[in-house]
Amino acid sequence: MDNVLTEALVRALAVGTPLLLACLGAILNERAGVVNLGVEGLMAVGALAAFAVAAGSPDANLWLAVGAAMLAGAALALLHAVATVTLRANQFVSGLALALIGTGAAGLLGKRFEGLPLFNKVADWNLGGFTISPFTVAALLLAGAMAFWLGATRSGLTLRSVGENPAAADVLGVNVGLTRVLAVLGGGALAGLAGAFLALSYRSSWADNMTAGLGWIAVALVIFVGWRPLRAIAGALFFGFLYYLQFRLQGNSPVPTEVFSAMPFVLVLVVLALAGLRGQAGNAPAALGRAYVRGER
């Protein structure tokens, strides 16, 4: 029984890691008032950038590959920042376009890497018989650090004020546009880091559509956890466990495989509906999704 529980926890942590990293990035965006639905595309380009740097050479620097993934995610997120903050385009439309651009570009440019070996991977740490990825440790530490930063520091309060009342923040001397751009870039870097985990640790290979909808679940997870980083840990573990059940039950049940494949996405709709019923959506930043124009009321 202990072995089963340990396996379930390890698998839930593994699948939950990219969800947690991407969710933290989305929380950072949305706390500043910017919705970014392009997380799936950001994760895809991050995974491709990491694999492109690390593949084909046994001497490749894996941490340089991680940095490349974060840089690629931030670079693509810059398009969203320019469109929504500078040009004041619709944030939802821009995010959807970003998701399509990211996944399409990663699929096209990644064809040359299909089948290439990854000689080295980011090795898991063995903690007394319990293995854990350095990415997972980093994600947990980032969640705690972000919670502290948002709740107990001046810069964190500044970011939150931009998401709640940008006009008031502007009157107090805060550069609303710059704050939002930096939040979007930081969120893109975290989504790219989530992609790096997939390429360098979890799957250790490149394949088209390797994100498999995790980015969309991360976007929904933000609402489910009420825009709170520490709650995101529990939410990521919950959905990670659902993925574990999906693979565990396939082949051991008369239920068609497609049912298990759809289960995480169906449960996303369920938990979002429950969040709406209990008023969780009311916890959203007051200015979320709205462009700020100085002087407008």
Summarize the model shown:
Helix content is 69%, strand content 2%. With 297 residues, the protein is mainly alpha-helical.
Explain the overall architecture.
Strand 1 (125-127) and strand 2 (130-132) form a beta hairpin. The chain has one domain: Orthogonal Bundle (ABC transporter involved in vitamin B12 uptake, BtuC). With 297 residues, it is mainly alpha-helical. It has helices at 2-31, 39-54, 62-86, 91-109, 134-152, 154-164, 166-171, 176-202, 214-224, 229-249, 257-277; strands at 125-127, 130-132. The protein has a two-stranded antiparallel sheet.
Give the helix/strand layout.
Elements: H1 2-31, H2 39-54, H3 62-86, H4 91-109, E1 125-127, E2 130-132, H5 134-152, H6 154-164, H7 166-171, H8 176-202, H9 214-224, H10 229-249, H11 257-277
Note the main attributes of this structure.
about 300 residues, mainly alpha, ABC transporter involved in vitamin B12 uptake, BtuC, 11 helices, globular, transmembrane helix, membrane, cell membrane, ABC_transp_permease, transmembrane
- Please give the share of residues in helix: 55-70%
- What is the number of helical segments per DSSP (H or I, 4+ residues)? 11
Whole-number tally of structural domains: 1
Main CATH class = Mainly Alpha
Low-confidence stretches: none
- The helix-strand sequence is HHHHEEHHHHHHH
Major β-sheet strand ordering: 1-2
Strand content: under 5%
Question: What's the rounded overall pLDDT mean?
Answer: 87
CATH architecture: Orthogonal Bundle
Q: How does the major sheet shape up? A: 2 strands, antiparallel
Structural class: mainly alpha
CATH topology: ABC transporter involved in vitamin B12 uptake, BtuC
**Shape by Cα distribution:** globular
Number of strands: 2
